Amino acid sequence: MDTSGKENSEEDQRARLSERLDAFQAGDTRFGLFLEGMASPHTLAAEPRQRRVVAFINAQLDTIGVELRDVGYPVFGSFQLPMP
């Protein structure tokens, strides 16, 4: 609910979160580091939870040709995928 008592749609919540994080204005490197941090062992201690978060993030990133990959247990890095 927002401050007026109205329920917010999930889409509205995502848009507000993106605005607050400046996700659309962030450079590629900064945004990649943000995503890597979301799957970091410092953020998520349980490796199965990290993998679930990475799978969710990768499903969203698929459309822009980027993915998080396991680069050393349990650390994930962002990579640009080759264009078909």
Question: Can you walk me through this structure?
Answer:
By secondary structure, this protein is α+β, with helices and mostly antiparallel strands. The chain has one domain (10-80). The protein is built from three helices and two strands, in the order H-H-H-E-E. It has helices at residues 10-21, 28-38, 47-61, and strands at 66-72, 75-80. Strands 1-2 form a two-stranded antiparallel ribbon. Strand 1 (66-72) and strand 2 form a beta hairpin. It is globular, with a radius of gyration of 15 Å.
Question: What sort of overall outline do the alpha carbons produce when their principal axes are compared?
Answer: globular
Total DSSP helices: 3
The chain-level structural class is alpha+beta
Q: How many domains would you count in the coordinates?
A: 1
Q: Let me know the average pLDDT.
A: 80
Rg result:
15 Å
The largest β sheet comes out as: 2 strands, antiparallel
- In the predicted model, the low-confidence regions spanning at least 5 consecutive residues are none
Pfam families: AbiJ_NTD3
InterPro entries: AbiJ-NTD3 (IPR041427)
Protein name: AbiJ-NTD3 domain-containing protein
Organism: Herbidospora solisilvae
Keywords:
84 residues; alpha+beta; two-stranded antiparallel sheet; 2 strands; 15% strand; globular
What are the SSEs and their pairings?
Blueprint: H1 10-21, H2 28-38, H3 47-61, E1 66-72, E2 75-80
Antiparallel strand pairs: 1-2
Structure summarized in a few sentences:
The protein is α+β, with helices and mostly antiparallel strands and 84 residues long. The chain has three helices and two strands, in the order H-H-H-E-E.
